[in-house]
Amino acid sequence: MSGGNQKLQEIRPITRLLCHVYTSWVVLLLGLVLTAAAWYATDQSVRAKAQIRFDNRSSEISSAIYARMNGYEQVLQGVVGLFHASENITRKEFNTFVNSLKIKKNWPGIQGIGFSIPVTVGDKAKHIREIRNEGFPEYTIKPEGDRDEYSAIIYLEPFDWRNERAFGYDMWSNDMRREAMTRARDTGEASTSGIITLVQETNTDVQKGFLTYLPLYQDGVSLETIEQRRKAFIGWVYSPFRMGDLMTGILGSEQTEIEYEIFDGERVSKETMLFDSNKSSHEEYPLVAGALMKTVALELQGRKWALHFTTGRNAQGVSESRQPIIVAIVGLVVSFLLFFIVSSLALRQKYTEKIAQNMESELRNATELALANEEKAERSTDNEIISEILSLSILSKSLNDTLEKALKLILSRKRFKHFGMGTVFLFDELTNKLHMAAQSNLAPQIKSMCTEINLGQCLCGQAALLRKTIMKFCLDHDHEITFDGINEHGHICEPIQSGEKLLGVLNLYTPHGHHGTEQELKFVKTVSNTLSGLIKQKRFESELAIALDTANAASEAKSAFLAAMSHELRTPLNAVLGFGQMLQFTPNAPLSPNQNDYVENILESGNHLLKLVNQILDLASIEAYQIDLSLIDLEANEVISNCVNLVAPLGKKRSIEIVDQFSNGPLVHLFTDSTRLKQVLINLLGNAIKFNKDGGTVTIEGTETDYGYLRISVIDTGIGIAAKNQSSVFNLFHRVDADSMIAREGTGIGLTVSRLLAERLGGRIDFESEEGLGSTFWIELPLANNDDVLIWTEVIKIGVDTIDKDHQVLVSMVNRLMRRSADMADVDEIINELIEYRIHAVSFHSRRSNYGGL
Prior knowledge:
This protein is α+β, with helices and mostly antiparallel strands. 27% of the residues are buried. It is built from 25 helices and 22 strands. Helix 15 (399-411) runs antiparallel to helix 18, helix 18 (518-584) packs across helix 25 and helix 24 packs antiparallel against helix 25. Helices cover 50% and strands 18% of the residues. The strands form five sheets. Strands 12-11-10-15-14-13 form a six-stranded antiparallel beta sheet, with helices on both faces. A five-stranded antiparallel beta sheet has the order 2-1-5-4-3. Strands 17-19-20-22-21 form a five-stranded mixed beta sheet.
């Protein structure tokens, strides 16, 4: 075997494994597992990246708020420093200092910077008077009312319309403010209040707010204790904050990648919520599915805030969020695509193995021969030789001639060391001997001595008897057949077998001393197996040809006999009928009533017998394919109308109404034989009347099919056909079970002839019936414009040789196959017939080689 073939043998188990049906399911399962793993890994990766971004961003926001609030505290510390730098800070100096800070630009989010002082009950009036004297005549402490202690905002910059609303406001009057103010005064540290609504708020864009206070003490005094701090306390430097403006100033207004809520204190609730970055979205959609969440505690100027973070609506980019889905979809598509490919390969492999079966090696060799045609002149491989031997099977040669050619091909092997001599023996079971069927370059002495060999005699007889390869590299005592002066040589004798059955022996002459290589032995065994198939096929062809010739002869003899007998019977029958009619119409000697009845019986029986003879003649002509068709383009309407008129008198005798629903309709053209069509229709109409009930109905209809045929239906209201008899309706000489009168009228041939005629016309005939209710017989014939149908006629017989009959059979079966209305049972039957004719075709081709052909 060549290196290429060895590699092919090594690859084949892998190929079969890959093409196994279970492999496709394994591939699908692995694909789904890998897809799930890839999806999970991608999903986890996306989630991990989202978590990292979420953590980083939440930390950034927390740090930004903390840093900004500390920055605001430092601004307040600067204001405190201003008061310590001067004994008396005027309103103008305060305004100048705050404006120099440019808080709207440098410290966005801060509502303003103010200064509030405590006011005792006794100093309240004096305080109001002093402020009014500064140019604020409507100044007062708000809200009005009597309290034990007061505070008053005396400075608040920028002193715009919004902040002017807080001028004079008593922050000590509010519990939330007082708590932060007290903590700032007593601790000396900055203090932030809880949730409040600033006095500056209007009815538009109301926001929650808070205040941050920083205490101002006298210089040069001790502030170690609460009492010391309270005693040295002057007032509060503070800043009001609106949460919305503050967070916009810190983080900006676009924060879609992360959403957060700020709560006053550690409790997370609607009541403690200071700020919601996406309030409208949270009200409509409470939480994004699968959102990340995190709560961070933040302590600012003695007040704890809880920052609750969640992933925003656009936390992930569209492409990133779709990565797991894309991976899953791609994985599924690839998995099912691989499953489909491997499944297709498995089905294809199974189908191929079923067809190939034992011909695998021959088909492989034939394929290699086709692929090596271009290199045929340069080399001759073992496969080419086998292929050429196989190709001999299609030649119309005798078995011995075929073996002669096969032997020459075997000896043409260039890499095989031989003398160019060899023989092929065939085993004769009758004589139990080997007979030389083919030889190449044998010496005359050997040719005459080896014409016939007994089993066990010499090397070839031993190979046949032992059913094994006999290889000799020299002449020894086993070489029984010899003569003086014979040249030294060796032998390879290989039995030709079909299973355990001996068919013959292949004998090749080799050089003296040549032991034969493994490749040569494999080649000889392969050739032997090939010759086995060749011998079996040629013998089968020979037997088939003999059987076929015998069958054809018998068929022709039968047809000739039927034709001859029919002609011989028609002559006396016509005479009997003629004399009977003469007896009836002889006016000079009229018959008595009884005599007339006898003559009527004679005429009726004679006509019935003549009809039977004519139908037998038609049947014989059709079966012998001797019927001539005259195909014309005709109007089916006219033909059917004529047939109805012909059978109308028969129906009238029994009061049977014939309803023609077709003739007066749209014209339908057929390309067929008018006479044969009328013969079939009259037979169907006659049967519909014959097997009908008195006073019944016969309806004829016609419909065009979607596959180019006209279906003509004959519907009767007669006795119908029992289910057990329906399978044999078209059998020769079959007659429906009916009363004796109807049975006596039928011949059992009409439907058989009608079926054969329908098939010859490229159509078919069939029926539907229910016992007691009637039957519907129909015939389908091709329309004139149907170009897909081939109808056998004398016109297309030009150039056809003696096998015309077989071509006609094949054309008839092809016509049946081309009808798309054929059901599976019809197709199976036709295919089986085609297979049988394919086998017959081998012998047909061998017999036509001397005649030419189409």
